[in-house]
């Protein structure tokens, strides 16, 4: 069994979002956000379920007008009727204070409110409207994420810090000042929320930027200067490989340092691509770091001149799809199965070794990939598969292994039974 790594987590306040705990030593939580028109109850409900089924533990929805505000309670009711208790977060900009006041059932239907201080209001209206939103959260007993954003930073604060920096005998670069403005905005608004009456264990803060090094610097500063629960996200991460690489670099660095209590991957979807990919990326980052386990992992080699057919690639893809498809039932039947490690290797160079290191593995012969492949179980060669049905037979072996290892009986008995099965 592959054990999870031990990463010392930063101590933060624990915030309850519905039944999901954020911070305070709780597992790092995966979040996502819908991109449907929230006013469309059917399409938004369907996408929330799709995201939740993929593993999103919290889902955020846009609440930008009266129609969307009135739709949220209907969405919550429909989700509950269908058996989905996934907490919903309302994403407010500009008019949240008004919508929460005018639609009395909106606040109770949400598990958390997300406020961007830079978009709450301007001038003398800003403090009143921010206070109105915090009071709405207090009235319905909900936590708040205070989320500052590089693209909508409080301009008064940014200008003030820029002026002070210009007057300094040793002025800092503009990027440093803007990072400091983000940190101060988040912390000062959180302190203001506490003064209004919102306790620290109902506050999550975030500071979204679109560049990796800026994000790392900002969150390091937030972690050093507060104990609030932190939501991590690289905003506007981009599309395809760029978005995946940038998000992984930023989140992975901070998580490895024990910083971050909940995460989201803000990927731009490729046309016709599932929204669930942002959930799967977050899960894979956490699992690759050894922080959490969601799905049995498939170790597979990249292929080289020794693998002159696509058979091992197709086999790895089939096994990975098989594991994902089976997980909804397996996680109910076999606790711990998500920590399973499976190897599908393409040639004899590293194949046998990697297969032995996995819980269960198969090693193909290489060039031409003749259909003869040894299977290793818990470090020992257990059997050899031949012929045209290697994929189906290996799937059956995996399923039997899981039933024996994670089902009833002692671990020793199940392992001995597997090794004697050939």
TrEMBL record:
Reactions accelerated catalytically: (2E)-4-hydroxy-3-methylbut-2-enyl diphosphate + oxidized [flavodoxin] + H2O + 2 H(+) = 2-C-methyl-D-erythritol 2,4-cyclic diphosphate + reduced [flavodoxin]
Pathways involved: Isoprenoid biosynthesis; isopentenyl diphosphate biosynthesis via DXP pathway; isopentenyl diphosphate from 1-deoxy-D-xylulose 5-phosphate: step 5/6
Cofactor: [4Fe-4S] cluster
Coiled coil (residue ranges): none
GO MF, one annotated term: iron ion binding
Gene3D superfamilies xref list: Dihydropteroate synthase-like (3.20.20.20), Sulfite Reductase Hemoprotein, domain 1 (3.30.413.10)
UniProt xrefs under Pfam families: GcpE, GcpE_C
Assigned protein family: Belongs to the IspG family.
Protein name as catalogued: 4-hydroxy-3-methylbut-2-en-1-yl diphosphate synthase (flavodoxin)
Organism this protein belongs to: Arboricoccus pini
């Amino acid at each position: 069994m592959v054990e999870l790594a031990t990463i010392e987590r930063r101590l933060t306040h624990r915030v309850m979002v519905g039944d999901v705990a954020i911070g305070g030593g709780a597992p790092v939580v995966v979040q996502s956000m819908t991109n449907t028109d929230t006013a469309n109850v059917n399409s938004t409900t369907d996408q929330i379920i799709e995201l939740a089924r993929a593993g999103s533990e919290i889902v955020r929805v846009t609440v930008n007008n009266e129609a969307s505000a009135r739709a949220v309670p209907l969405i919550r009711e429909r989700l509950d009727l269908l058996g989905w208790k996934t907490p919903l977060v309302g994403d407010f900009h500009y008019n949240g204070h008004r919508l929460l006041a005018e639609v009395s059932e909106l606040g109770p239907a949400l598990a958390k409110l997300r406020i961007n201080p830079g978009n709450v209001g301007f001038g003398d209206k800003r403090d009143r409207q921010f206070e109105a939103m915090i009071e709405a959260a207090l009235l319905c007993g909900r936590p708040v994420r205070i989320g500052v954003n590089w693209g909508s930073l409080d301009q008064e604060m940014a200008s003030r810090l820029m002026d002070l920096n210009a007057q300094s005998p040793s002025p800092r670069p503009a990027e440093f000042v803007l990072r400091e403005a983000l940190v101060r905005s988040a912390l000062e608004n959180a302190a203001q929320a506490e003064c209004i009456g919102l306790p620290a264990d109902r506050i999550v803060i975030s500071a979204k930027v679109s560049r990796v090094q800026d994000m790392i610097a900002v969150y390091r500063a937030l972690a050093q200067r507060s104990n609030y629960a932190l939501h991590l996200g690289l905003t506007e991460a981009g599309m395809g490989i760029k978005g995946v690489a940038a998000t992984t670099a930023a989140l992975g660095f901070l998580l490895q340092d024990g910083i971050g209590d909940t995460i989201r991957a803000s990927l731009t979807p490729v046309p016709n691509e599932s929204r669930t990919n942002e959930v799967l990326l977050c899960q894979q980052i956490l699992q690759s770091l050894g922080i959490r386990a969601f799905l049995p992992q498939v170790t597979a080699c990249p292929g080289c001149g020794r693998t002159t057919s696509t058979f091992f690639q197709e086999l790895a893809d089939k096994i990975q799809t098989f594991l994902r498809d089976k997980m909804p039932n397996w996680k109910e039947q076999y606790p711990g199965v998500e920590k399973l490690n499976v190897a599908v290797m393409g040639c004899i160079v590293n194949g046998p070794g990697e297969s032995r290191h996995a819980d269960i593995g198969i090693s193909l012969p290489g060039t031409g990939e003749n259909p003869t492949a040894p299977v290793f179980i818990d470090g020992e060669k257990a059997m050899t598969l031949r012929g045209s049905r290697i994929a189906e037979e290996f799937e059956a072996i995996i399923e039997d292994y899981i039933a024996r290892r994670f089902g009833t009986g002692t671990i020793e008995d199940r392992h001995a039974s597997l090794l004697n099965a050939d």
